[in-house]
Amino acid sequence: MNRSDGRTHDSLRPVRVTRRYLKHAHGSCLFELGDTRVLCAASITAGVAQWRRGSGKGWVTAEYALLPASTHTRSRRESTGGGLKGRTHEIQRLIGRSIRTVVDMGAMGGEVTMAVDCDVIQADGGTRTAAITGAYLAVHDAFVTWRDLGKIPELPTIDFVAATSVGMVDGVCMLDLDYSEDSVAEIDMNVVMDGRGRFIEVQGTGERTPFDRGRLDEMLDLASGGIDRLVEFQRRVIADDSDVAGL
Length: 247
What we know:
Layout: E1 15-19, E2 27-33, E3 36-46, E4 59-66, H1 86-101, E5 112-122, H2 127-148, E6 161-169, E7 172-175, H3 179-182, E8 187-194, E9 199-206, H4 213-240, E10 244-246
Parallel strand pairs: 4-5
Antiparallel strand pairs: 1-2, 1-10, 2-3, 3-5, 6-7, 6-8, 8-9
Helix pairs in contact: 1-2
């Protein structure tokens, strides 16, 4: 089938990152995936939650939000609309788990907490996967700042992490669904992987039809190829110390 933006079934949307986007966060970036734009910020503070005290280790937590005007119809801020929705809780836990997988929390400089904030300022599908991919760059830069302040001798990141969506629309498996595709997909899946090609999390749902092992393998292969490209992009951005870069 022909995709609305002319991409092939195995193509990512254009990617663009602007690093050091915020003045006060230890690390930040604006991560753009097609028309989806997520502001990612990472800040490190002294202290950990009570259950973590005495461990000598740090912790990484995440928060996620869709800003009111980020979607087609303005939505109320969840802080004023009765609390966080289940979807928001799910996504911010996913972001936190994904980042913690690639951070040595015993090397964060003691009992400190890194808070990763991912705010969607414009949504066109794939907001959670864009948040994870952008958050990693913000986290890396925050740890660079922490090291430069003399808080740690070396970066505690032990690998890369990136994510993408994949799904089936009109019987065709395709990578990195935008909203127009995601909203009608028969199968919808989000995949998170590390820099060595290992799966961190797979969220897959037969929205309109069940799927067999062959279809699952096809979608995971598509996702793996897309994440490989995203990780290479992250590597290049960090190696070049680019303020602005695209894929």
